């Protein structure tokens, strides 16, 4: 795969997973471009670097060598680039930009905006050096959320009312050729919770209807059971041996309030059992989607740069890169 589009419901860690995937793909000496299209500067925050301009900048060195470059795509700058590429009108475009007409155009025609954003990723995927070699081994796009991903990627339909022929239509056709290529994969990031899983299942179905390539499921913040299966069942049923827990608390050297602590531990075990049951139920729903699944653990200390590398290693180990 050369183009990896990463989507997910808000709050699932979509940008984090996209950045980790870029690191995993770059491992071993490869060169990867990570593209952000929502203007949130989430990539810069993750890699602890200044806000990204509309140019490709190196943001990280991957495990075992390899470079990750990043780009924050600005629709107005992309429009100027488009005008220069197809009409040789960059200077006129800057004048239009000062008048606010470019922002106006992309607002009243959101399909054009999406063509410009996806077009930048498409161009990066196809770009070659003078020797005919690809500049980037892979491109990762931190795409819009799951609820908007089908419309965002289906640029041909979005520009149908704007242009039947000409440069805009040709540009959209070129973008769609890349997006429908067997070298493209759209990955879904989800948590093991009802709403994110439902949006993921619906999003996969929508992409398949449109003939767009579905990649893998990146299941984030997976909590591993910390109790044996029998104890989980007992905790779920409220049948844990409170007296045995109290004795265990005392054996650990806690004499005061051992009974209250035992009750609190039993309640926490019950919550943990319910969470584990919910995870298993949602995993079963995801299994019906019939796509590769990769699981990323819940990091108790939160996400930081070290966590990105930990996730990258895990994705590589599971075969996502």
TrEMBL record:
Boundaries of every ArsA/GET3 Anion-transporting ATPase-like domain copy: 1-177
SUPFAM superfamilies, per database record: P-loop containing nucleoside triphosphate hydrolases (SSF52540)
Keywords: ATP-binding, Nucleotide-binding
Keyword Transmembrane among record annotations: no
Gene Ontology molecular function, alphabetical: ATP binding; ATP hydrolysis activity
InterPro entries hit by this protein: ArsA/GET3_ATPase-like, ATPase_ArsA/GET3, P-loop_NTPase
The protein's name in its UniProt record: Arsenite efflux ATP-binding protein ArsA
